[in-house]
Specification:
232 residues; alpha+beta; 6 helices; 14 strands
C-alpha cells in the first residue's frame, strides 16, 4: 500500500478522533490528547489520498530518550505494515535528534503490539501495574533524604523513571532528572515519586499511579511492559 508519513495537521484531528474513539472497551485517551500533540508538533500521521490511516506521537524526553505513544491504526488498515512504518519513521526521527534510546509501553494482553515491538528489536526493561490506587500510610521526605530515596528507587528500577505528567511516559533517568519531575517523595509500602511508585502503590491520596509491583488499587487497569530500543 502506498502512503506518506508527515506531521499531523489541525485538519487531521477529526479523522483521528473518529477512528480512535472506541479503540478499547473503555474508549481511548488519544481523542483527548491529539489536539495537544498536534499543537506541540509531535504527532505524525500516515496518509493516503487525504485519508488518515494511522497516528503516532513522538516525544523527546531529554536524557537521550525518545518516547513513543498513541500508535493507532484505522481498523480497516490494520496488519498492512502501517504501524511498523510509523515506528520506523519515529526511530529515524529519534536518530536524527541524537537520541540513544527509543521507549514505549504495551499492555500485557496486546500481543500484536508486543510481537511488532519485539520483531523490531525492542526489549522489555520494566514491568508496571497501573490504576487508581488506594491511599496508604506514607511519610513525606524532603531535601537530601528525598534525594537519597530517589537514588534508591532508580537503583531498583535499573535507572528508569516514569511519570504521569503528560499521559504515561518513561525514560532513562539520573537522580537530577527524576527530582526535577517529582513534586513529593513518599516512603511507605514502597517509594512513591509523585505518581510513580517503586514497589507497591505508595500514595497518601487516592490517585492514578504507575507501580513496579501490584498492590492496593481501587481500580486496576492492568499490567504493562516498558520496551526499549538502543540506537546504534
Amino acid at each position: 500500500m502506498d502512503f506518506t508519513i508527515r506531521k499531523a495537521a489541525l485538519s487531521d484531528i477529526d479523522q483521528v478522533v473518529d477512528f480512535t474513539s472506541s479503540t478499547f472497551p473503555w474508549g481511548d485517551y488519544v481523542p483527548r490528547a491529539i489536539y495537544e500533540w498536534v499543537k506541540a508538533g509531535t504527532a505524525y500521521v500516515a496518509v493516503r489520498d487525504n485519508e488518515v490511516l494511522g497516528v503516532l506521537n513522538i516525544v523527546n524526553m531529554g536524557n537521550d530518550t525518545v518516547w513513543l505513544e498513541g500508535l493507532r491504526i484505522k481498523p480497516n488498515y490494520r496488519r498492512m505494515g502501517i504501524g511498523r512504518a510509523l515506528t520506523m519513521y519515529a526511530i529515524s526521527e529519534a536518530k536524527a535528534t541524537g537520541a540513544r534510546y527509543v521507549m514505549l509501553m504495551i499492555a500485557e494482553w496486546n500481543n500484536p503490539s508486543r510481537n511488532l515491538a519485539e520483531s523490531m528489536g525492542f526489549r522489555g526493561v520494566l514491568t508496571l501495574h497501573a490504576g487508581v490506587a488506594e491511599p496508604s500510610s506514607v511519610r513525606v521526605v524532603k531535601g537530601n533524604e528525598a534525594l537519597n530515596y530517589i537514588n534508591d528507587a532508580l537503583r531498583l528500577t535499573g535507572g528508569y523513571f516514569c511519570t504521569l505528567a503528560n499521559h504515561w511516559s518513561c525514560t532513562r533517568a539520573n537522580a537530577e532528572y527524576a527530582s526535577s519531575m517529582v513534586n513529593e517523595v513518599y516512603v511507605g509500602w514502597g517509594i512513591g515519586l509523585s505518581q510513580f511508585s517503586v514497589g507497591p502503590p505508595t500514595t497518601p491520596i487516592e490517585s492514578e499511579v504507575l507501580a513496579t509491583e501490584p498492590g492496593a488499587f481501587r481500580d486496576y487497569y492492568g499490567k504493562y511492559t516498558v520496551y526499549e530500543l538502543t540506537l546504534g
